[in-house]
Amino acid sequence: MAKSFGDTTNGNFDYSNLGMSNHDSSQGGDTPEPAEYVAPDVANREEKAVTRSKFLLFSVLLLAVSGAATATYFLMEEEQHNDFTVVFAGLASEVSTVSRQKVDQMFSALDAYALFIASEVEEDVNSSWPFVVLSDYSKKSEKISDLVGFQRPLLVLGPLVREDQKEKWTSFVLESAPGWYQNSLDNEGNKFTVDALMNMTIPFVHEYNYTDGFRPIPTQTTGSVMPIWQRYPFEPQNTGLVTPSYDMLSMPESADLFQASSVSLRPSLGFTLWLDTSEEASYGQWAVDSQIAQPITENGKLVGMLWLRLPWREFLDNLNVEGLFGMVAVIRSSCDIGLGELVDNENEISYSLDASGAVFLGYFDAHDTQYNDLGVSHVIVENDIDEDQIPEGHCVHKLTLDLYPTEEFEAAFNTSKPIVYTSVVVAIFAFTSLVFLLYDYSVGKRRRKFMERIMKQDMIVSNVFPTAIRDRLYNSDQEGSNQDGLLDPLGGGPGSRGLPLADLFPETTIMFADIAGFTAWASAREPAQVFILLETIFGGFDKHAIRLNVFKVETVGDCYVAVAGLPEPNKDHALAICRFARDCVKTMKDTTLKLEVSLGPDTSDLDLRVGVHR
């Protein structure tokens, strides 16, 4: 049924039925404050989802940049290291190959020279071993220097002199030495004279007392001896003596070579001490080099030997390998070098190889241990001697050449490529990130505009529908959105995919209200004044509706329709709508009084008619 609260012209409104006094009509202890508009959670959720997605994308991008830059740097470092190892391996292999070839060529040249000497003596009917003088020994030996690989090698001819031939040897030296001295002086241009050389000559087979100022004494060797005879180049020693008749077998290292070659009739190689007067001399005047003993045979019997000094520094200087630098060469023997206290290490000699030449480092392995895995080792001397033929206590030297890089060699391959390539990768990713940021800014700007449009639409929907209905509209929109991607809150139209929202609310109370005298008042007013009146009065009604949880249904002209008990059920819906009606009546009276100044004196004459239906 409908119940009218009657006319409110005289301001006498009965509040007794509502349980409140006229003074308490607008406030009370249990009366809620008006609710403000709250944006739907979907906007916040979408914004958070976008933020999380961007953070995740930037994290992945940062990890990708870090990973790519690190991988690029280490790949380029590995490429440089590979270039370093490949180039070194190739260069070391070439050095080893050239060294082996030069050593093989050296042994072949000595073997050929020994055969030539044997045949020349055999053809000379006036000569017999050991009393032989080779014609033009200096010229012939000089030619051999081109084959052995370095200039002016020390090449000595030593005939084998038996015990019963020693006295005759002394007479032979005094008799024959002037002739080949003169021949050597003519060929080599030495500043000495024959007479001066003869005064320095010791004709008997001798050795030196090293503890007594190199004083010559008769050789202590028993049995056969091997005195030095002709030599190239011919140069007197610092002692003021020439070397003819110096017994090679008085030196233990030479005696070992003699033992090995005499039983095998094969060349052998060992180490020996030499007086070194060059600027590069180490350990005072002494230097350790190798010497080669090449047997000379006649009818299968040993009659003499060619002794060749092999200076390793000069040998390495003349390898002529292009691009050789920054290496350490370690010459390693299978036997002890056995040179006494002078050499602490027993079987190693080290040299550095650079573009300027070889430099002696010491009698030890001088390579940097960090390059152990890169070492290249090749056998360069492997004597073809049956070890079973070697007397006990003697050793046949087998030499290997071990080559190692230095930090200087590796530094030549350390370029700025890793940093440059890494910088390029980082720059590419940085540019990509910048493009992405610009794109994200553009998309974000469009998204913000779109969200503003959505929020405005949501505010309109919130003003038309309760929050619960609004949320149901959004949920139905997620299940089936319309074609243009915008909200379709009414559920209609060609893009609608859901059923209309319709619920039954049996417990409700409806209020109808209109303004008495509005038609006559409005006919005498401007449209703007009519709008101000309705906006002000109905705006106040709306605040009361929000505060009292009353749902505004519609306004038609000066008519205001509201209902209590929906969309959220309320068991006190009748009481709520009556309180709402009471507040609307009071708001009507207060508002017309305030607007009378701006809208005309008859504005306060307007009344509110209210009807309630339950």
Biggest sheet overview: 5 strands, antiparallel
Helix percentage range: 40-55%
Number of strands: 17
Principal-axes geometry comes out as rod-shaped
Radius of gyration: 60 Å
Compressed to H and E, one letter per element, the order equals EHHEHHEEEHEEEHEEEEEHHHEHHEEHE
Tally of helical runs: 12
Note down, in words, how this protein is organized.
The structure is a single chain. The chain is an alpha+beta fold and 614 residues long. Helices cover 43% and strands 18% of the residues. The chain is built from 12 helices and 17 strands. The protein has helices spanning 41-123, 137-148, 166-188, 194-199, 252-264, 312-317, 407-411, 417-464, 467-479, 518-523, 527-547, 573-599, and strands at residues 2-4, 155-159, 206-209, 215-218, 231-232, 268-275, 286-298, 301-310, 327-333, 348-354, 357-362, 376-382, 398-405, 509-516, 551-556, 559-564, 607-613. Strands 1-17-14-16-15 form a 5-stranded antiparallel beta sheet, with helices on one face. A hairpin with a 2-residue loop joins strand 10 and strand 11. Helix 1 (41-123) packs antiparallel against helix 8 and helix 11 (527-547) packs antiparallel against helix 12 (573-599). It is rod-shaped.
